[in-house]
Amino acid sequence: MLFELYEAINKYHPHIKQNIILLNKDFVDEEYMASHGIKDYHPLSPPLFVQTMLDYKMPAVAVYHKLMTSDTKFYRKLHGRVPLVVVNHTYSDAQSYNRIEPCDVIVCVSEGMKAHLRRLYRKEPMRVIRNAVNGSRYTGIQPIERSYDNRLVTGRINALNRIKYSDEWLKWMYRVELPFILEHDYIGGGGFLSKAKGVVKGNRKKYQNQVNIMGSVNDFDKKISILKSWDLFVYEINRNEGISMAILESLASGVPVICSNHHGNREIIKNGINGYVFKSKGELKETLKDLGRSRRRIDDLKRSTINHFNKYLDAKVMASNYVSLFEDVLSGKVAEGPIKGRIKPVKRKRIMVKKDLPDPSKSDTIKYDKPLFSILTASFNKGKYLEDWANSVIAQSYRPLEVVFVDDASTDDTQKLVKGLFEKIMDAGVSVKHIRNDKRTHCASSYDVAWQNATGEIFGVLDSDDMLTEDACEFIVDLYKKHEDITYIYTQFDIYTKKWEFRRKGYSLPPIPGESLLDMGKRRKHTFSHWRTFSSRFPRPQKLWKKGLRCAVDKFMGYRLEEFGKGMFVDRVCYRYREGAKGCISGTEKTKETWANIVNEAVSRRKRYKLKPHKIVVLKDY
Fold first, then answer.
1. Domain 367-619 has CATH 3.40.50.11540
2. In the chain, what are the domain boundaries?
3. Which of 32, 331, 412, 443 could lock 381 by a disulfide, CB 3.0 to 4.6 Å apart?
């Protein structure tokens, strides 16, 4: 990225003089640098670099590009004497790789990285400036010629190391059954290269799909020619990272990216615009199947990919952000103020917060070797009920737990109330994400936003005027552990008055034998309802929410769930439903009319796409 930034500043801000200084000449790859047009650089030892900066007479900013194992101790003498910016490129959960000596500002290349470092360093000034590449370098390079007859051509580029490589990925690319041949190029060197070649050798004759291990391709034009011949860049990693430069190269080449749900790559991929983010292999398979059936869809996606890149991700945008930062640093206007002294990292719970939430450092909890459960809540003008809702979350016996709360542009006192409530929730060891819609989008769209911002493996829907039983999350997690083929689970609920007086048992039911949720819905029989949960195993979670739907959201969700995954019903109360809350439209004529429309749409959809409902298991012994 250093070279991309250097080139962009030279091109768009030529008044700024730059010098590239390499602190370890033993690692200089001259062929690689030449392919990026870098000819002028200065190899200096760290002590000589420090002395050079101290002797420099003109206003200057030292920008240190830190990788995972880079040491930052060498620049201690510069702090407070020379403006110093540290660009942290590598995301790591290991504290030893996140040690950064005092500087004027830390640049994080993704929001996920900033949230992670903020747990370790509470007061350091931080800015998010995403990596980028110079799109102009890619426009004149032509793709290599290859056949696309009845095949989908995909590829990926990355080092074959423990973070990004797995045998299972290659085996899956061979085994996945699609209505066409899947061809997958893999560019990259590293310690697992020979192992990858062994996996390919052992599988190439067993399946129709094709995997090509290409090793390192250091020549830039050759690499981009291969990349441009792909229909899709398909990328799965084993943990979070900064932002992949290979993904940026793909987007600059107009090749859409299908990537796993990890920071920070998911921050730059916009579903349906420049690619898709998948949360499971099942979801990836459906995405490949949908795109591979239509060359026109791929071509349209390629056009929107390059347009989105030029507008938002080109290095021109990155260079302008850095130049603004340099001006702020030189003038002493870094928003959060300079670091006055070393602040030792402290152990914090794993927590994701929005910038308007209370300081997460007030929460001190342990890390858990258990799946994260995400409670999804959408709310509109339910301020008077939020304390009960919050107490219900706090009372949950299960950790780790996160809440994703979407305020659908409420006009009551919700905004005032939630800050204090969220602080209580975080003090109880539960992380919080708070999103407020700019304008009202209604229930289903708000839940879709909640799901897209969730990071858990298991998800449950809790309306903002309702409550859960104390072990609701723990009970559900145990069921998913015991039944690995189940993708969604719904339970029974109790109905209460507005003042929490018990009225009666709810109406969640399994379909009668031989029928589906939709069959029951045709007769307007209530079946699928609270507590509604699904796991990351479910292959098509993006299909669960109909944009703009105001009511009967549970009916739409239930019909979609049974279309794509195996489910389970448990006649055990896990949810407390408040009947008659202000703004509730359950049971109104409008809801009944909407339900009828949803049933008719589902019948037509299943007939058109030949969708058959999956089985719903009824668990009796729990």
1. no
2. 2-134+320-331, 139-312, 367-619
3. 412
